[in-house]
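Reply to thread "Modeling small-molecule complexes from scratch"

Following up on the discussion above, here's a worked example others can learn from. I took a protein sequence and the SMILES for magnesium ion and predicted the complex. Inputs first:
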Amino acid sequence: MSDNISASTLAQQLASTLTSILPTKPLSELMIAIVGSVDAGKSTLAGVLSKGELDNGKGKARLFTVPLKHEIESGKTSNVNVITVEVHGRKILLIDLAGHEKYIKTTLKGLNQYFPDYAILLVNAHKGILPMTREHMGICKSLGIPVFIVITKVDNCPPEVLKNTLRKTKRFFKSYGRRFVSELNTPKVIQKYTELLAQNAGVLGGYVQLSNVTGVGLDVLRTVLAKLPELPSVSRAITAYIKTKNIKQLFYVMTPFKVPGTGLVVYGRNYGGELTKGSKMYIGPLDGKFVEIRVRSIHNKMRQPIDVLGHEQLGCLAIKPTNAKAVLTKEMLKQGQLVTEHAQMDTFVARAFRGQLFVHATPTTIREGYKPFLNCGNVRTTATLIHSDMLPLRMGNRANVVFTLRMPSVLYPEMPFIFRDGRVKASGTVLQTLNDEDTKTLLEAVKKEKEKVEEGVD
Ligand SMILES: Nc1nc2c(ncn2[C@@H]2O[C@H](COP(=O)(O)OP(=O)(O)OP(=O)(O)O)[C@@H](O)[C@H]2O)c(=O)[nH]1
Ligand SMILES: [Mg+2]
């Protein structure tokens, strides 16, 4: 009994000292992905943070975030759910991702298309570091997303098991070269951690112990969330890059729909300038070209009609070609396309790219002609390896490569790309995009080089 009293007194004391390090005014909006193995409590944590009510340990809180009907029945997330929460006045978009291995491609897609600022990697205290924990950590590392760990279900975890999980968590962070591997449990450590994040977020290893049922650790997590610094993410790099090219605004299409009575609708995220209802814009690339459209209506994430979609906002656009004779069908619309006011977007369309590739795992060797399914930001398409300065490629190899793209797409230098094709896992960075003309010249050169080699062999 006395132990309980002292524990709750300690918790109260901690809560009041945490308040002293809170930022005086709300910081900018953040997007944070929640990853980790199946059943770690990801959807539950999203629910608890959004509603401010604790879980019952039997799936109550995950229902707060309105999952899909089949997700309610199975208890497993199979989709990408975006939940808006407010933490100490700061707006945070949580991307709740699936933990089960069979949905890994959806999780990969979610991490790629939303460009989150951070990821919270959940570790079930009872189960510790599992293969999917490593998998998600590896993907975040490849995409340059800083990760901190939340150890969940500490409420009913035997002390010995918890101790073991904490030890393994520290070792796990260290195996990824993380420094400052510390439990974020005092205002001083949190202060230091968030200060260091701004200097080099990729190398830190902070973790929090938490229970969605008793609420232990929630105050700490909320304080960390309120204090996380805004870092130079991929999304910001793209925004900066398009500015240098005089493109003021870009809307990234994530999902196209056809809505009865409304017509074509695209869900996605807007970057740069504002997107206004009624404006004339362009959508593409559709086989390398852009089609002029009018934005008939805009809806925000809460499905409310709005007139203007601002920078980094998610929303739905109802669109229609301005030319009545133009053909635009749902089948022609794909994730990875853009809606922009910029009329000369065609010049940015890449047919191929040069990049740097690292092979994390492969059961066989990789040669020219290899066709993985590539995730590069919002773009998902089959790509063909047409050149590598090291062949064949084996596990652990790093090479300069050229891929052609099946779907002509808008890519940017510095953008991370990743593929996970069966047991092949590789990632890299785009160095230079190649348009139609450059690609033709390059393919010619590759062909000539091959002929030369073949002649030499004869
Ligand atoms: N005791 C206890 N149970 C928890 C805690 N967090 C979540 N749970 C329970 O764990 C179960 C799984 O939680 P979910 O939030 O659905 O797990 P998930 O990580 O989203 O799982 P997937 O979406 O399938 O990857 C539910 O029954 C929750 O009530 C916790 O801190 N303590
Ligand atoms: Mg879930």
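What I'd highlight from this example: The chain has a mean pLDDT of 89. The longest strand covers residues 349-361. Questions welcome below.
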